[in-house]
Design brief:
Nonspecific Lipid-transfer Protein, Chain A, 16 helices, about 15% strand, alpha/beta, seven-stranded mixed sheet
Length: about 425
């Protein structure tokens, strides 16, 4: 009897120390924590395995149990995440993974990133439903970290500020050839063409995104200057390298064993002297490639199969091995926390519509699982960026051209200016977006 009670006794003690009041109902009916009527979060645990995960702070496995219907939740996502953070036994980025976990990660990275495998993984996530994503993204459907240049910006304004921030860093000019790797629903691709006059090419592995952007190109009358291709970056062949390349929210899908090849390919696609803006999520810890306590497994199973994170220092090493020179790096981690909370709040405000949209494509049972997974994913990632478990970097790199003189200045070997002033020069005030789908 003492052995059976030990996990629940430990859980009761941990519940008492949480920053929000949590009530737990265990299998068999035993109740722990706050009275349900006074609790901000109520967890009804239906499986003993889920109860053990809860007692030991394995919150990723608790999340899986929630998705599978083994744990029912009442409460807001913000309160649930506050409780989850308090239940963790330690930081999920501390310590080195075991030799077994490292071997599994190596095998997964080696085998998962074939052309066909990466296409399946991307389509698993991005082709869930365009209408579902439209419920909680901004009107341009920019599915990456926003840039809150001023504290009062709306999500839509901050996404436009991010698009402009990238274009400014790349110093885009009319007539230049611009490549967007992993172009999503075309936000950056179309912004660069409309506001900077570039000849723009985007690539994606998502059938939904490809079709959507083709429609947007036609609607905006940009057929002559903008094109979207359904293509893997490794298969892209061009007669003339691009003047500038952006990769936003894509390199997380590459795999650590393929990272140098990825940057080698980007260097091949970028003309000497040109600039690359690589924007993506990185690991918060130096050693870990995924979060512990089941959180990495949750993301792999329900959200981003095949995704792998690396610390920014490791990313920059691969970039350098490929012959690209890092000229500027900016950490937007707090911006992504705010972005993800905006997405999470947006989805929470649209739950009935989200159920209807997902059920129409996937059926009611599958729709409920997808919705539970995304609710946890968005709020959980917001928590992770707030706590520094993950980060978001914009890495600006140059393809050195070997020239020792740029105008009156010597040694630049690229078009990158000698100061950052050009990135932050006065610009027109952002206004709310008026784009409609």
């Amino acid at each position: 009897m003492q052995r059976m009670n030990a996990p629940s006794d430990a859980l009761a003690a941990r519940l008492a120390a949480l920053p929000v009041a949590v009530a737990v109902e265990l299998p068999g009916g035993k109740k722990l924590g706050a009275p349900p009527a006074a609790a901000a979060v109520v967890l009804r645990v239906r499986e003993r395995k889920a109860a053990l995960a809860l007692a030991t702070g394995q919150i990723g496995y608790v999340g899986m149990a929630i998705v599978e219907g083994q744990v029912e939740v009442d409460g807001t996502m913000r309160d649930l995440m506050a409780a989850a953070a308090g239940l963790l036994p330690h930081s999920p980025i501390q310590g080195k993974p075991s030799a077994w976990r490292r071997l599994l990660g190596w095998l997964r990275s080696r085998t998962a990133h074939t052309l066909a495998g990466d296409a399946r993984n991307i389509q698993f996530h991005y082709d869930v439903s365009d209408d579902f994503y439209a419920l909680w993204l901004d009107p341009r459907r920019v599915y990456s970290c926003a840039y809150f240049r001023t504290p009062d910006m709306t999500l839509a304004q901050a996404q436009e500020a991010k698009l402009d921030h990238i274009c400014r860093k790349l110093r885009l000019r009319p007539g230049e050839r611009f490549l967007d790797i992993g172009a999503g629903w075309g936000g950056l691709l179309l912004w660069a063409a409309e506001h900077y006059g570039v000849d723009a090419t985007g690539i994606t592995l998502s059938h939904n995104q490809h079709a959507y952007v083709q429609q947007r190109i036609a609607a905006l009358g940009l057929q002559g200057r903008v094109r979207m291709e359904l293509r893997d970056y490794r298969e892209l062949q061009v007669a003339q390298p691009f003047d500038a390349v952006a990769s936003v929210g894509m390199f997380e899908h590459v795999g650590r064993l393929h990272m140098t090849q990825y940057f080698d390919t980007v260097r091949r696609l970028l003309r000497p002297g040109g600039l690359l803006l690589n924007h993506g999520i990185t690991a918060g810890g130096v050693e870990n490639s995924e979060l512990s306590d089941g959180m990495g497994e949750f993301i792999e199973r329900y959200i981003f199969p095949g995704g792998e994170l690396m610390h920014v220092s490791a990313v920059l090493r691969h970039m350098a091995l490929a012959g690209l020179e890092m000229v500027d790096t900016e950490n937007l981690r707090p911006h992504y926390a705010r972005t993800l909370w905006a997405w999470s709040d947006g989805l929470e405000a649209q739950l009935p519509k989200a159920r209807t949209v997902l059920a129409g494509k996937h059926g009611v049972e599958r729709a409920e699982k997808i919705l539970r997974a995304y609710r946890l994913y968005l709020a959980g990632c917001a928590l992770g960026f707030e706590r520094g478990w993950t980060a978001l970097y914009q890495m600006l790199a140059a393809h050195p051209d070997g020239r020792m003189e740029t105008g009156s200045l010597r040694g630049a070997q690229s078009e990158y200016p000698f100061t950052r002033d050009y990135m932050y020069a006065a610009r027109p005030a952002s206004t709310p977006t008026t784009q409609t789908d």
